[in-house]
Amino acid sequence: GPIPGASAAECGNYREHDLAGAVAEAKAFLPVIRDWDETKLAYRN
Fold it and tell me: Domain containing 2: what range?
């Protein structure tokens, strides 16, 4: 189906959406974050 937020009415940058590119980036980043736990996801002050 359609990707939420990928139309002109929903997003001013809709022309820059790239599902295939986003999937590729997520796959590349997964090995980096695979073993992370809550401590790696918390912001440091």
Answer: 1-45
